[in-house]
Amino acid sequence: MWVTYVNNKITFVNMQERLAVILKHYKLTQQEASILFSVSKANISHILSGRNKASLEFIMSIKDAKKELELEWLIYGRSPMFKKKEESGRVSEIDKPSIYRAIENIEHTLEMINREVNYRLNEIKEEIGKF
After folding, report:
1. Alpha helices in 7-95 (DSSP H)
2. 31-69: per-residue pLDDT in tens?
3. Exposed e or buried b per residue across 39-59, where buried means at least 16 C-beta atoms within 10 angstroms of its C-beta
4. Is residue 78 within 8 Å of residue 11, measured between CB atoms?
5. N or C, which terminus of the chain has less Cβ within 10 Å?
6. CB atoms within 10 A of CB 118
7. Topology of domain 3-93, CATH
8. Distances (CA, A) of 15 to 40, 62, 76
9. Measured at the alpha carbon of residue 41, what is the angle toward residues 36 and 44, in degrees to the nearest 5?
């Protein structure tokens, strides 16, 4: 883990480590995070592996979904990870646009799974018909 200490506080040097901390803190899998942040699972995987750097759009998608995270921490790894309560408002406040995006992503995923299941069922029916 690439961390430094500034004024006796841990600073995460790269986004790869900050993303890992976010996933661990919120107990998210890469798939769950991709839905919540409205990004591809591959994007998350590539950032976690160090293959790709996080874009500003990626960072802002995290910030949009998790408003309680401190933007300076997300971008630079400095400052506390979370805003003070009075700065962030109600931490448990529901972010409707993020929820709607997550629901749309889930609906799309379910539609794709349904298509795949129907395709496989048709293949099985064709195989049974050959006997």
Report:
1. 15-26, 30-37, 41-49, 56-65, 71-76, 85-88
2. 999 999 999 999 999 999 989 999 999 999 999 999 889
3. beeebbeebbeeebebeeebb
4. yes
5. C
6. 10
7. 434 Repressor (Amino-terminal Domain) (1.10.260)
8. 16, 12, 8
9. 85
At 83 the pLDDT is: 79
Residue spans per domain, the chain: 3-93
Query: Is the model's pLDDT at 126 over the cut of 60?
Result: yes
pTM score: 0.58
Tokens 């400052």 map to which residue?
A: 79
User: Is the distance from CB of 98 to CB of 36 less than 8 angstroms?
Assistant: yes
* Tokens standing for residue 114: 């349904």
Q: How confident is the model at residue 91 (pLDDT cuts 50, 70, 90)?
A: very low
